[in-house]
């Protein structure tokens, strides 16, 4: 059975790929779940248009990510003041959401907290830390964050 994938299917392909599968797999798994459509001339034309739109969107996103990286690098070091106890130990910890808020308040671009790669799950000490912000699969920015006592 010849099908066109509409979603990512593990070990089979990406959206827009034309694949040949066994009838039972296509009829009982892929088609009912909406992971694929039957390959017809009209469907192939529609998929080709979707593929072109996705490629242009990806190029546009890459340009936007490059601009965001330049903005983040221009900011330099971001300082986050926190309450500390005796010995410089933090009350609580600094999470990715706190870093995103600090980036935004420093005049940086809006960043999704899920794209912030922390050295560990949370920062629990005062000092300088290097954080990587994934802006696009091909673009990431390194950011210096300084945690200081308030």
Write the layout of secondary structure elements.
Elements: E1 2-5, E2 18-20, H1 23-30, E3 36-38, H2 41-75, E4 77-82, E5 89-94, H3 96-105, E6 116-117, E7 123-125, E8 127-136, E9 139-149
Summary, kept brief:
The protein is of the alpha+beta class and 150 residues long. It has helices at 23-30, 41-75, 96-105; strands spanning 2-5, 18-20, 36-38, 77-82, 89-94, 116-117, 123-125, 127-136, 139-149. The N and C termini lie far apart (65 Å).
Detailed description of the structure:
This protein is α+β, with helices and mostly antiparallel strands and 150 residues long. The chain is built from 3 helices and 9 strands, in the order E-E-H-E-H-E-E-H-E-E-E-E. A 4-stranded mixed sheet has the order 4-9-8-6. The chain has a 3-stranded antiparallel sheet with strand order 2-1-3, with helices on one face. It has a two-stranded antiparallel sheet with strand order 5-7. The longest helix is centred in the middle third of the chain and has 35 residues. The radius of gyration is 23 Å and the shape is elongated. The mean pLDDT is 84. One of its GO terms (biological process) is translation. This is Large ribosomal subunit protein bL9. Belongs to the bacterial ribosomal protein bL9 family. GO terms for molecular function: rRNA binding; structural constituent of ribosome. Binds to the 23S rRNA.
């Amino acid at each position: 059975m010849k099908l066109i994938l509409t979603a990512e299917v593990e070990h089979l392909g990406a959206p827009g790929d034309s694949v040949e599968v066994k009838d039972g797999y296509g009829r009982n798994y892929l088609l009912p779940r909406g992971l694929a459509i039957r390959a017809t001339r009209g469907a192939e034309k529609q998929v080709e248009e979707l593929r072109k739109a996705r490629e242009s969107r990806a190029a546009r996103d890459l340009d936007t990510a490059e601009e965001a990286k330049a903005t983040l690098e221009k900011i330099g070091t971001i300082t986050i003041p926190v309450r500390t106890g005796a010995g410089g130990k933090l009350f609580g910890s600094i999470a990715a959401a706190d870093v995103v808020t600090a980036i935004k308040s420093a005049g940086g671009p809006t960043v999704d907290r899920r794209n912030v790669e922390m050295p560990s799950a949370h920062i629990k000490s005062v000092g300088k830390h290097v954080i990587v912000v994934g802006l696009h699969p091909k673009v990431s920015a390194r950011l210096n964050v300084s945690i200081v006592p308030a």
